[in-house]
């Protein structure tokens, strides 16, 4: 699961017993050599799906980590790109590794996604692999925050994958991981919020609509199709709606 350049078992254990913020500060130098980094195939598929709607002016990578999504935005946005994350360690790695030659300027901001330090300054917000760090009750507020930093008509986009079926080993792996995290958080403080099974598409779509988005789903055919004909992966593209003026 982890190569020789990745974190050791001891390092992972120390991270798991830390807060989310401090845990990622510790993991940051080796994060890109773990399975937790968003694979390049996912980034490429999302970039391809978003390209027809662009080019965009200003982009934001929400919970940017080491900057994989930020780098993607430099190919979609022509004016500016910003990465925001609450881990200083992850941002430091991102600053070193994302240095586009030409193209839009890139800025890095330390901040909490639940209280974004921006006005309505972006045309596109993306996020990759971060939603497991938010409890279900936090998602409505998160979606409202994203809407508040988008210009009217701006998009909030992220990939979602169909959950594995019980007959597959991945189903039980994720179930076991979430159960272990719940036990850990019941016995140890500070909590480390990372759950893979709490981000349910139907609830997410309802939450986005309640927050003032119009939502469209696009299949990502690069990842194939399930036996029932549904895509294994989709791009959620939520557009900020402009409220109708009062009659």
Automatic annotation (TrEMBL):
Keywords recorded for this protein, A-Z: Methyltransferase, S-adenosyl-L-methionine, Transferase
For whether the record's keyword set contains Cell cycle, the answer is: no
GO aspect biological process, one term: methylation
Q: Methyltransferase domain: from which residue to which, for each copy?
A: 60-154
GO MF annotation terms: methyltransferase activity
- The highest taxon in the source lineage is Bacteria
This chain belongs to the protein called Methyltransferase
UniProt organism field: Streptomyces lucensis JCM 4490
């Amino acid at each position: 699961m982890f190569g020789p350049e990745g974190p050791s078992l001891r390092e992972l254990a120390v991270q798991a017993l830390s807060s989310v913020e401090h845990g990622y500060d510790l993991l940051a130098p080796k994060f890109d050599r773990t399975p937790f980094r968003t694979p390049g195939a996912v980034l490429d598929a999302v970039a391809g799906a978003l390209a027809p709607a662009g080019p965009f002016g200003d982009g934001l990578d929400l919970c940017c980590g080491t900057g994989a999504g930020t780098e993607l935005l430099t190919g979609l946005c022509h004016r500016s790109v910003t990465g925001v994350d609450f881990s200083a360690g992850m941002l430091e790695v991102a600053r070193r590794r994302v240095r586009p030659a030409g193209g839009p300027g890139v800025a890095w901001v330390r901040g909490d996604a639940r209280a974004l330090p921006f006005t309505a300054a972006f045309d596109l917000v993306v996020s990759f692999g971060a939603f497991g760090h938010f409890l279900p009750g936090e998602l409505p507020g998160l979606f409202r925050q994203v809407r508040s930093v988008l210009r009217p008509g701006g998009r909030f986009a992220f990939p979602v994958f169909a959950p594995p079926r019980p007959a597959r080993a991945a189903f039980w792996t994720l179930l076991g991981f979430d159960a272990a995290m719940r036990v850990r958080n019941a016995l140890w403080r500070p909590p480390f919020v990372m759950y893979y099974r709490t981000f349910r598409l139907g609830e997410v779509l309802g939450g986005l609509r309640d927050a003032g988005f119009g939502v469209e789903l696009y299949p990502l055919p690069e990842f194939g199709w399930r036996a029932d004909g549904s895509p294994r992966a989709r791009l959620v593209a939520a557009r900020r709606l402009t409220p109708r003026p009062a009659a």
